[in-house]
Amino acid sequence: MSARTFFPQERTIPVGELASMTGAELSDPGLSETSIRGVAPLSRAVAGEVTFALSRRNTAELSATRASAVFCSKAMAVAVPRGTAALLTPHPHNCFAKAALALYPTAAQPGPMTNATGISERAVVDETAVLEADVVVEPFAIVGAGAQIGRGSRIGPGAVVGPGVTLGRNCVVAATACVQYALVGNDVVLHPGVRIGQDGFGYVPGPSGMEKIIQVGRVIIQDSVEIGANTTIDRGAIDDTVIGEGTKIDNLVQIGHNVRVGRHCVIVSQVGIAGSANIGNQVMIGGAAKINGHLSVGDGAQIAALSGVASDVPAGARWGGVPARPMRAFLRDAAEINARAFGRDKNRDKGDE
């Protein structure tokens, strides 16, 4: 495994400590003092690294691994090579994620781009802005009039915190991100290029063309939200756009004005949510899915990737397709379409003969 140039080793952790912090069972206590210094995929891991095996499909790779430790289920423990510590758990991937975070804590969020401490002389901070202790403002960042930034937060180079914005404690606004017309909670991470609070898309046909609808609402982002690079979240028109606590949003997502996203949702890359949609709590939306405006997606619902949602989705439902419908119906329809297409191809091939 090549050296991790951008995330160098910070510490080593004994296997026994990894077991304790993740809740995994160490199959051979005699290996508890084995030192772990890094992570790697199952097929490329070497001595000193920890890896994981998800299912029986990984059995061949598991039996050949050179890792010092591996998270796996009890059923797969028989395939773990002699001398490799088996960390037994029904949730190998989750445990591996905890271990990786402990080994590489600086990789959990965008890191600083400079060695700046406090407010850089090359940043622009309005004299009416209020910054608590231990705030870092890197070069070329801008903090507008009346903005408030909580203790321990960091504003990256070229980032903008607009006038009147409130940013909570221990937040990261990464390089070139822009936050306007927003109230942001604690422990929020905004990756590079994020755009929060820009004008929503609102027009109405008039006698001389399209007339603009004013957008005078806010964006409210609750605690522990993470928003991926180049995602855009429009401010409300006359209401607020809201992102609920603990929600994780991938790169390149578009969320329109007045949208309300609940708590602990997962929204994957290239999703588009049109204005005034209401997304419940713990909703999962797959990549490139599209949600029409003014509809509701109930708590716990799952939307498959590439779906087009054009009607309300009940709580707990699993929908997919275009237009999106219950997953069973979507899979049945897809199977019928494939069968008909395959049948036509077979008949055409026979005709060619």
Automatic annotation (TrEMBL):
Domain UDP-3-O-[3-hydroxymyristoyl] glucosamine N-acyltransferase non-repeat region: 34-100
Reactions this protein catalyses: a UDP-3-O-[(3R)-3-hydroxyacyl]-alpha-D-glucosamine + a (3R)-hydroxyacyl-[ACP] = a UDP-2-N,3-O-bis[(3R)-3-hydroxyacyl]-alpha-D-glucosamine + holo-[ACP] + H(+)
Gene behind this protein: lpxD
Keyword Repeat: yes
Protein name: UDP-3-O-acylglucosamine N-acyltransferase
Molecular function GO labels: N-acyltransferase activity; UDP-3-O-[(3R)-3-hydroxyacyl]-glucosamine N-acyltransferase activity
NCBIfam families documented for this protein: lipid_A_lpxD (TIGR01853), PRK00892.1 (NF002060)
Residues of the active site: 257
Subunit-level organization: Homotrimer.
